[in-house]
# Entry
Amino acid sequence: MIVPSSVPKAMEARYLQNLSTATRRTGRLFLFAGDQKIEHLNDDFYGTAPEAEYPDYLFTLAGQTRIGVFATQLGLIARYGAAYRHIPFLVKMSAKTNLGGLEHDDPMSYPLATVADVVRMRDEHKVNILGVGMTIYLGSRYEGQMLASAARLVLDAHAQGLICVLWIYPRGKAVKNERSESIIAGAAGVAHALGADFVKVNAPINEQGDAAPELLLQATRAAGTTRVICSGGSSIDAKDFLTTLHGQLHRGETAGAAIGRNVYQKSQRQAESFCEAVASLIYDNADLESAISKLK
# Structure
């Protein structure tokens, strides 16, 4: 595992431990995304699995499944983290709601906390926080502010031995095709230039509407030693999801996935078996048939 020079010598051991824990010593990451309470308001939670209407369901699933990190806002961790100290957390440091569409203005993901706030909670309350992350909307008229915030976040995180994941989505009135192969590769390259450990992107789609895993190769190569993980998106059939993920890992050379709705919009029994199937693909390098056999 590479230790970037932005990590002080005194923090190298802590950084490596956090990276090793998050990736379960594989270099791959299963990021359980729980930041939609702000991003999508209540739309993702009401009317799906009955359990999902209660915020602590996210923590229950994160605590009972083989994820790498559970990513959510610091406020939710402050509310529930003390009761789930074994969960490996990643703090989502920025957010916006889905109420303001592009017809209103270009997107901007605002910082909600500082690394100092995260470290204080980690150290004073012994919360198992491994890293931080934020969103950048490339092409937005506010991209300069977000790029500057992300660059600072990476440096501040590494200074404390934390890993950093950047969510990078090309989006705004100037962006004509936010899922093109080249622009997704550009987003991955930006994350690498900012020094991120992982970058979360949407899988590219070609002009025919195909999301073939090979389209990710340009991105995974442009990202260099920054590892690429793909967004899980809206909830789909579990077997179809696993098939897509297997292709992304082996034909697109990605290093994991960030999954939210495909986990918590299931009943607890289904969610737990689905997470185990995903973990087997990401961490155990299992074949597709073996992973599918774990579904219940």
Summary: Residues 9-292 form a domain with the TIM Barrel fold (CATH 3.20.20.70). The CA atoms of residues 119 and 160 lie 8 Å apart.
